[in-house]
Design a protein that fits this description.
The protein is mainly α. The chain has a domain at 95-185. It contains 9 helices and 2 strands, in the order ααααββααααα. It has helices at 22-26, 38-51, 58-68, 72-81, 101-110, 114-124, 130-139, 148-163, 171-183; strands at 83-84, 87-88. It starts with 21 loop residues before the first helix and ends with a helix.
Length: 185
C-alpha cells in the first residue's frame, strides 16, 4: 500500500472489522454500513415483485426473506428464479446454491419439523460457514419462539453454540446440539 499510494486507491471491505489488524486500520478510512431493517427489506422485495407484476402470498415471501436476509440481491435473484407465470412459488430446495439450505430449513421449521431441519442443516453447512449459521439463527429468532422471554433464552443458546466453535473438535455436533436446545424452546 505504501509503494502505490500515490497512484492507486484501495478499497478494502470486510464483514468483521474487529478482525482486521491495527496496521491496516490505521491506513484506511473506515465506513460502517448498517444492514437494512428486516421490515424495510421485506417491503423492498414486495415492492419489486409488485412492480414486476409477480403475485405472492406473505408466507412465501417470508420464507425467501428469512432465508436470504440481509442479502437483498440474493433475495431478489432467488425470487426471480422461483417466479413462474407471474406467481412466486414456494421454494423447491433445488435452487442450486450452497446457501439454499436456508430456504428448506425455514420451511421445515415453520412446519414444526425441527428434527428434519436439524439434519438438513448439519449435512449442508460447511465448517467455515458456522459463524454465518449462528448469525442466521439469531436473525430468525421467531422460528424458535414467538414469546419474547423464550427468544431471550434462544439468544443465550445461540451465543453458547457460537462461543463453542473454536473449542469443539466436531462442528457438526456443536451445531446439532445447539439446534436441539433451540427446538426445546
Amino acid at each position: 500500500m505504501e509503494m502505490y499510494h500515490a497512484s492507486a486507491r484501495f478499497i478494502l471491505t470486510c464483514n468483521y472489522p474487529n478482525r482486521v489488524i491495527p496496521a491496516l486500520h490505521s491506513r484506511c478510512q473506515g465506513f460502517h454500513i448498517d444492514k437494512i431493517d428486516i421490515t424495510e427489506f421485506t417491503a423492498r422485495v414486495a415492492t419489486v415483485l409488485v412492480s414486476e407484476g409477480v403475485e405472492f402470498d406473505l408466507d412465501t415471501l417470508d420464507t425467501y426473506v428469512r432465508s436470504t436476509y440481509p442479502d437483498l440481491r440474493k433475495c431478489l435473484n432467488t425470487c426471480q428464479m422461483n417466479s413462474t407465470a407471474g406467481q412466486l412459488i414456494q421454494p423447491s430446495g433445488d435452487e442450486g446454491d450452497s446457501r439454499d439450505w436456508k430456504l428448506s430449513a425455514v420451511e421445515l421449521f415453520k412446519a414444526g419439523k425441527t428434527n428434519e431441519a436439524r439434519k438438513l442443516m448439519c449435512s449442508a453447512v460447511r465448517p467455515e460457514e458456522m459463524e454465518e449459521v449462528f448469525r442466521w439463527c439469531y436473525d430468525n429468532l421467531e422460528l424458535w419462539s414467538k414469546d419474547v422471554e423464550q427468544q431471550d433464552k434462544a439468544i443465550i443458546i445461540i451465543r453458547n453454540g457460537m462461543a463453542n466453535i473454536p473449542l469443539v473438535a466436531d462442528q457438526e455436533i456443536n451445531l446439532s446440539a445447539t439446534l436441539c436446545e433451540l427446538a426445546q424452546l
